[in-house]
Automatic annotation (TrEMBL):
InterPro entries: AtLOH3-like (IPR055298), HATC_C_dom (IPR008906), RNaseH-like_sf (IPR012337). SUPFAM superfamilies: Ribonuclease H-like. It holds the Pfam family Dimer_Tnp_hAT. The lineage of its organism: Eukaryota, Viridiplantae, Streptophyta, Embryophyta, Tracheophyta. This is Uncharacterized protein LOC110770304. One of its GO terms (molecular function) is protein dimerization activity. Residues 284-340 form the HAT C-terminal dimerisation domain.
Amino acid sequence: MRGPGYDGASNMRGAWNGLQALFLRDCPYAYYVHCFAYILQLALVAAAKDVAPIWLFFSTLNSIINLITASPKRHGELQSTQATDIAHMLDTGERETGRGANQIGTLHRPGATRWGSHYDSVSDLIEMYNASCSVIETLIKDGATNSIHGEATDTNALYKIGTSRSCQQRDDITVEHHYRVDLFNDTIYYQLEELNTRFSKGTIELLTLSSALDPSNDFKAFKIDDICKLVEKFYPRDFTSKDLRLLRYQLELFESKLHLDIFQNMSTLFELCQRLTQTIRAQTYYLINRMISLVLTLPVSTVTIERAFSAMKHIKIVLRNKMENEYLTDSLIVYIEKELSMDIDSYSIITYLEKLKERRVLLH
């Protein structure tokens, strides 16, 4: 078994509790590289909480989104105002028409475990800035409820907390110094701290050594010693001592052929694997091809399992919450593996079901 993947947003429970530990006990070289997008998302969210101006920005953003989207009336006013703005910009030529363009959107809340949700929230507010301001101005003119007044008070309090120390005590600091040193450098520092704590040393070393196979920039990162170290340390059961000596010889021979046209204009490891197979050089460099195949399982397996969990929100809806696990699993497999399910003949399934037992009603 190679390259297993797990749901990183929650621990496995019930019958599957400790599944990763059980796999590692029987397959110690089944390396698991957690989804980097998820780790980066958590690291950025944690770093944002440690930098006061960044925390203030996203807290205010979340308050604005909650204020506008909490009421169906305000949400409808937002979309109506946005439609008016888009129509005006189309008339003045500020926007171009096109298929799928100029659609009416809404503000999305940022989520700690949703990849790119903070970026989407900021982009939505920029896109609908005028419409959002119009909704808030209407609330101010028409009068607001006590809860909305309280929301505005809380937002003002957040502003005072975030600016009192930096602005009131350091009047000699320039704007450039504030954004470059106090804000940008602090943010980068906290992000690096979070990344160092969330990425294990073993994972970093595995991926660093694997990058020696990267064919981009004319194999600039190609290093024979790193590739051999990768095999010796992380894949000892897949290569014998004789294979290791032969692998170094194949790598030296492969390096001498990198100037050939067949090894040019490649940017990914997957393209290199394809090129070796298409030119039948996978048989000549069979140990290199084996090494590439093992490394390729790391990102592919993780993406596959994350895709499966993302598909659950489309399958497990309110109407299907009471379905049995076996039926849910079968439905997910058909939905996720669409390419495979399209090759399945419906009549063969019906014939199979008819042979299981006699039925009162014909299936076709």
